């Protein structure tokens, strides 16, 4: 990132995994109506057990390995399995937040403190998830200007083919 700048432009949505990718960029641009954030993790469990029983359908699971069928959709979710899934989700969330924190310079507490909220435009900047508010049609100009500007503030002439 220091040798070759990589910029992200969120013209619409950069949530969840896209937020992680954007956070790894050296500069993050958002538009007024863009959505950014959703730094969280989720999974779901669906049980057909009651419906199948009511329909008279009996499913027999044949498996090897005590945890092979944990969380299957044919049985109600046992509390022990739910707790295991929650631990996995919590670990993945922590890893996600640590990466975003590392890339953005925010603390892990600030990142997790967003509680997976989605921010629009300026509020994404205020949350520390984006750097600059731009008009989408001006984004390329903003990037081009930065490309031809030295750290000293000088500008390099743009070369044209002869």
Automatic annotation (TrEMBL):
Residues 2-145 form the Peptidase S49 domain. Belongs to the peptidase S49 family. Keywords: Hydrolase, Protease, Serine protease. It comes from Escherichia coli. The keyword NADP does not apply. This is S49 family peptidase. Gene3D superfamilies: 2-enoyl-CoA Hydratase, Chain A, domain 1. One of its GO terms (biological process) is proteolysis. Coiled coil: none annotated. Pfam families: Peptidase_S49. SUPFAM superfamilies: ClpP/crotonase. One of its GO terms (molecular function) is serine-type peptidase activity. InterPro entries: ClpP/crotonase-like_dom_sf (IPR029045), Peptidase_S49 (IPR002142), Protein_C (IPR033855).
């Amino acid at each position: 990132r220091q040798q070759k700048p990589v910029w992200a432009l969120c013209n619409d949505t950069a949530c969840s995994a896209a937020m992680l990718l954007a956070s790894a960029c050296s500069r993050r641009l958002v538009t007024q109506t863009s959505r950014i954030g959703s730094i969280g993790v989720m999974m779901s469990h669906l049980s057909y057990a009651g419906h199948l029983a009511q329909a008279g359908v009996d499913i027999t699971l044949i498996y090897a390995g005590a945890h092979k069928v944990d969380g299957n959709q044919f049985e109600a979710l046992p509390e022990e399995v739910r707790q295991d899934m929650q631990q996995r989700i919590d670990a993945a969330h922590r890893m996600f937040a640590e990466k975003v924190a590392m890339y953005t310079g925010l603390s892990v507490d600030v990142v997790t403190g967003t509680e997976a909220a989605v921010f629009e435009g300026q509020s994404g900047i205020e949350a520390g998830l984006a750097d600059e508010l731009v008009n989408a049609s001006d984004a390329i100009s903003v990037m081009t200007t930065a490309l031809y500007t030295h750290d000293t503030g000088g500008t390099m002439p743009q070369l044209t083919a002869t």
